[in-house]
Amino acid sequence: MKAAVLRQFGQALSIEDVEIGRPGPQEVLVRTAAVGLCHSDLHYIEGMRPFDLPGVLGHEVSGIVEAVGENVRDLHPGDHVVGALSVFCGTCTQCLGGRFALCADTEVKQPPGKARRLSQAGQPVSQVFNLSGFAEKMLVHRNALVKIRDDMPLDLAALLGCAVITGTGAVFRTAQVRPGATVAVVGCGGVGLAAVNGAAIAGASRIIAVDMSQPKLALARKLGATDTVDARDGDVVARIAEMTGGGVEYAFECIGLPSTFEQSFRMLTAGGIATVVGLFQPGARASIEGAPFFQEKQIRGSAMGSARIRDDIPRLVEFYRQGRLDLQSLVSQRIRLEDINEGFAAMKTGDTARSVVVFDLA
Questions:
Q1: How many domains does the chain contain in total?
Q2: What is the pLDDT of residues 284-343, one digit of tens each?
Q3: Buried b / exposed e across 333-357, counting CB within 10 Å, b at 16+?
Q4: Which residue has the higher pLDDT, 168 or 112?
Q5: Which pLDDT tens digit goes with each residue over 126-173?
Q6: Model pTM?
Q7: Beta strands 123-127; 118-120: pairing state
Q8: Which residue from 93, 162, 288, 354 has the least number of CB within 10 angstroms?
Q9: For 53-83, what is each residue's pLDDT tens digit?
Q10: Domain limits for position 352
């Protein structure tokens, strides 16, 4: 099969032939339909979290089941599925506590280089994110997949596996935004835009989108933002305090920078909650004052939107069908696997929401 392979950190991906195994007892072979380009992929390409090379990235993915292992009973060839980062075992302490995104079972959630599912000339190729969606096929653990209805467009369904479940989950599950609340979303990439849309679905009365890109701010308004703030124009925290009469009840940091984390906490009103969604560089540190904690301000971390993928992804499909979740607007362009490096170049400009690689399923 063809796959986009990373051979050197900081360099372009190369389209190469890669061998893929057959399903083991708990595994599923999937023909890839579509995969979104995520900033997490870019961070890994640039060496933010090194792993054994060569490797295949890609985790925001949808496809069609081609074959299943002998112990897989609830998926069958022809089923439409969404893949998700938050593969889970269901039996560890975190899973039993309902925190499936934090599953600690390394036999299910294997680090890059451990799984022996991909190879070239007999040498292993790292499966990154337990999916490796930048390829024509994927061999994954059954619990990395969620079955969806067949009439859901697969190019849009791919977004549910990362950007959308992360952004909406941060709103619905991590922060639990209540109807009528005031919300600020800092960073309007795919995840931030999904958080904006999620806040609108949750019934927030005021949704303030913050970014440095005018195209992204315009898109945020389309997805439900009531107000926008260009982060290049003055003190963001002061402007939001003025707009809201003191600050917002919920702030979502969707970039992963110490400065925007600090801003997100400072823009809270008393009793507010800042939810950190962005992926920080290893070793990054932020500084905040201690006094606001006496106003019961809180900071929460959110991993994959605290998702329960088997519950949440089908629910997001229904929100899409009802016209409440706007997935189409998140797709900036549809590209071929051969154009994947151009897709990442477009991401670096800062004005695209999502580029989606679409595969030929004929």
A1: 2
A2: 898 988 888 899 999 999 999 999 999 999 999 999 999 999 999 999 999 999 999 999
A3: eebebebbbebbebbeeeebbbbbb
A4: 168
A5: 999 999 999 999 999 999 999 999 999 999 999 999 999 999 999 999
A6: 0.94
A7: antiparallel
A8: 93
A9: 999 999 999 999 999 999 999 999 999 999 9
A10: 2-161+327-358
Same domain, 298 and 262: yes
Count how many Cα atoms sit within 13 Å of the Cα of residue 129 in the half-sphere of its side chain: 26
Angle 200-204-210 (CA atoms, 0-180°, nearest 5)? Answer: 75
**Nearest Cα to Cα of residue 265 among 292, 302, 226, 294:** 292
Q: Is 295 in contact with 270 (CB distance < 8 Å)?
A: yes
